[in-house]
Amino acid sequence: MIVEDYSPDYFESRFGGGIPPIREGKFVHITGPKEEYLVLSPIELTEFHAHIVQRFSRRRAEMSSVSLPSGEEVRFGTPGWSIKGGGRFQWDKAARRIALWGASKVYGTFDGTYIREALRQSDGWDDVDVQIGEPL
User: Fold this and answer.
1) Residues 136, 46, 54, CA angle at the centre, nearest 5°?
2) Three-state DSSP class for 98?
3) pTM of the model
4) How far apart are CA 25 and CA 73, in angstroms?
5) Alpha helix segments (H runs only) across 41-100
6) Span 83-106, pLDDT tens digits
7) Which of 36, 37, 78, 100 sits 20 to 30 Å CA-CA off 111?
8) How far apart are CA 57 and CA 120, in angstroms?
9) Cβ-based neighbours of 5, under 8 Å, separated by 6 or more
10) 3-state secondary structure of 113
């Protein structure tokens, strides 16, 4: 699983850097033809989970998305891509802990057990404590 985090973009553009040591936001779990992603976005940047999907698809020229008004569903126009659910996150990077909980009104719940195991097998995530179900 590839973790794509929009926090650096947000905090660098708004505040010139300085990502908070503990941050929270929303996430979506996206699968593609060859990879899967856990996409994190700070709460200040993301009102709706659909905004994460829209940003993710725009960063990939080979993908297209259909965007609907505020908070409604955004789906990929390219075959082989799907959204497996979403929720909220809280990440304490220094303590190597991340919590995932909640659900997306549009994309539904996520498979916490699956995401925890997939992260443990990802580069740089094998020693991160992944908590499912409630904030840190």
Assistant:
1) 125
2) strand
3) 0.87
4) 18
5) 49-58
6) 999 999 999 989 999 999 999 988
7) 78
8) 25
9) 39, 40, 41
10) helix
